[in-house]
Amino acid sequence: MWYMDDSAGIYAVESGYLDRYVQVGIAQGRVLAVDFPVRIEENVEHEHELLDRIEAYLEGARDDFDDVAVAMTMATEHRTVLEAVRQIPWGENATVEQIGRLVPGLDADDEQDQLTIREALAANPAPLIVPSHRVGDGPGGMPPAVETKLRSLEGL
User: Fold this and answer.
1) 17 with 60: CB under 8 angstroms?
2) Residue 37: inside a domain, yes or no?
């Protein structure tokens, strides 16, 4: 796992492709959150190595961000779902049912387990880094317009 430096703070880059910012919260070298605000606060930093990668991705570079450390501080069942989502390669689409087959202890055909998967996707704290936009029939944890553009970028 690639760890960023020990910098901590909120970092943002403006994306013309998304018509908004990509904002990343980082602490102890791990991504805590990714948001897509239309406006940002004045105290947000604009220089970080992860922002460079995000900019390149939004310009069409293939990047799975699978080496970026993400703080997965949530219930175990949601964490295992999001860890499975991180395994979906760039440009590939998955379904909630397929994710259910990847997660130990979940039954892909069980409605309650499918609900658990959807809840984990909706609560994804780091969309883009944890690519919930690659799960075509699940919520992405990001604004719908952003999800549509990320899916289009990857040809989904």
Assistant:
1) no
2) no
